[in-house]
Amino acid sequence: MVAIVSDKDQLKTEALDPERVPKHVAIIMDGNGRWAKQRGLPRTEGHRQGKENLRRILEACVEFGVEILTIYAFSTENWERPPAEVNVLMSILELVLDHEVKKLHKNGVQVRHVGKMDGVSPHLQAKIQKAVDYTRNNTRLILNVAFNYGGRDELVQAIRRIVADGIPPEEITDALVSQYMYTAGLPDPDLIIRTSGELRVSNFLIWQGAYSEYYVTPTYWPDFDKEELRKALIEYGQRRRRFGKTDEQIDS
Ligand code: FPP
């Protein structure tokens, strides 16, 4: 056994049990602004570094055997930020769509959009749709990009569509509502990670996250590296998910 020198060294010696890797991981990528402020940089530099980190974490997810990664890239409330910051976030997404989609496709990543198109500029809408169509048949990892997404808004649009489809009340079940969510057909997230230490859900996957395990780290998103992800996955693997049942029921 290797001597334990620090938390980080310990992490490197701890193996990830492939049987206990969460299938679906969702991440609230928080702390870009504070990361930049700490360094005397503009907030937008934090978002740029956040984009770079996303690439690293995506690679690590493939390596660790995560099958679905959902990222909170832009919420329905983020439109209220200063226009210059909103513009930078839009241009980062556009950059990703213009320059990263081919690479994602080559690596077997299927890109999906989780959120609404209303309010998104028509040329960005077209680019999002193109990326989704281009990568549609990839199976190595599903990357759900929650963009212009809000959990309450998702529920409101689901209720509207259920009513518009004339579904009788007695046919409205958990499973049916799930089919009206942007994530229809996908399993709920097993693990939701939030960086930067905030203890809030922030309107993210409020339906799908009902029984997700939460993991919060003080690390700001641009610094949340592969070893931090490994630590989160190891901790998830040690948790006991009961889904409202008792330990005895789970054991029987
Ligand atoms: C939260 O940090 C982060 C965001 C609102 C944007 C997340 C975007 C990226 C990581 C870039 C990649 C994006 C796309 C579109 C693929 P914050 O700004 O709230 O940080 P703070 O709480 O420290 O101010």
Chemical compounds bound to the protein: farnesyl diphosphate
Number of domains: 1
Report the structural category. alpha/beta
Biggest β-sheet, characterized? 6 strands, parallel
Mean pLDDT: 94
If helices are DSSP runs of H or I spanning 4 or more residues, what is the number of helices?
A: 10
Low-confidence stretches: 1-6
- State the CATH topology: Undecaprenyl pyrophosphate synthetase
Portion in helices:
40-55%
**What general form does the structure show?**
globular
**What is the CATH top level name?**
Alpha Beta
Proportion in β-strands: 15-25%
Structure description:
With 252 residues, the chain is of the alpha/beta class. The protein has a single domain (2-9, 17-239), classed as Undecaprenyl pyrophosphate synthetase (3-Layer(aba) Sandwich), CATH 3.40.1180.10. 44% of the residues lie in helices and 15% in strands. The protein contains 10 helices and 6 strands, in the order H-E-H-H-E-H-H-E-H-E-H-H-E-E-H-H. The protein has a 6-stranded parallel beta sheet with strand order 3-4-2-1-5-6, with helices on both faces. Helix 6 links the parallel strand 3 (109-114) and strand 4 (141-149). Helix 2 crosses helix 3 (43-64). The radius of gyration is 19 Å and the shape is globular. The protein starts with 6 loop residues before the first helix and ends with a helix. The site of farnesyl diphosphate has 19 residues, from helix 2, helix 3, strand 2 and helix 4. Residues 29-34, 47, 50-51, 54, 73-74, 78, 89, 92-93, 96, 196, 221 line the site of farnesyl diphosphate.
